[in-house]
Amino acid sequence: NKNNKIISKDQINEYGILLEAGQGKNINGNMFAILKSLEYEKEWEKYEPYFVVTKDTIDSAKARFDFYGFKKVKVTIRDTQEYWTLLNTCKYIMTDNSYPTLYTKREGQIYLNTWHGTPLKYLGRSDIKNAVSLGNIQKNYFACDYALFPNNHTKDVFMKDYMLERMYKGYNLMADYPRNAALLNTDGEEQLKEKLGLKHKKVVAYMPTWRGTGRSADSEKQVAIIKEK
């Protein structure tokens, strides 16, 4: 990729952090939880967070960041020239999925992959119908300096189904998902309920990461069913 080669000569920003959730399609999960820490905690005040969005999610992302009072974060649209510049110059790159096939990590960059759920389904070579994504996800994990796994089951599935055994050279971080910290924040729970006008009501969250076979999930229909209940 000609542009990628030119961009890769730019100096790395030692304080730049690029966060990408669901290839820019999501504005939640582990990447959002990490962004909250970067915004709220003083020890990260020197760092410059950038959050990847798409043209379809940019307005929702900005509205959500305003809702939480974020001041530092800047958004970048995936696959734009700005996006590729940041991907090649941020010291820290983080995702819960995979970066584009054209991307090659530079020396001096640090890559963290958290993934986005516990695989109670088939992945990689065990999911032959969707094997088209296997190679790029495998490549991404080979590039990782750190891969976060919330339990041994998840780690074992990735090592087997993406054939990482004996070849993955990064560090395995066995730790809770950053997004799960929200479940223990009782003060935040009450504040959020008050902001949403639900202070005296019981709130139930439905948060599956897998809603159907392959790419055929009908999320709108499932949400409608839940509302009826």
Structural class: alpha/beta
**What is the share of helical residues?**
25-40%
Order the strands across the largest sheet as they lie in space. Answer: 3-2-1-4-5-6-7
How many strand elements?
7
Strand proportion: 15-25%
Summarize the main sheet: 7 strands, parallel
Overall 3D geometry? globular
Mean pLDDT: 89
Report the order of strands and helices: HEHEHEHEEHEHEHH
- Span between termini: 51 Å
Query: Taking Cα atoms only, what radius of gyration do you get, to the nearest Å?
Result: 18 Å
> What are the segments in which pLDDT stays under 50 over at least 5 consecutive residues?
none
By DSSP (H or I, 4+ residues per run), the number of helices equals 8
Short description:
The protein is 34% helix and 16% strand.
Account of the protein in words:
The chain is an alpha/beta fold. The chain is built from eight helices and seven strands. The chain has a seven-stranded parallel sheet, sandwiched between helices. The radius of gyration is 18 Å and the shape is globular.
Keyword list:
229 residues; seven-stranded parallel sheet; 8 helices; globular
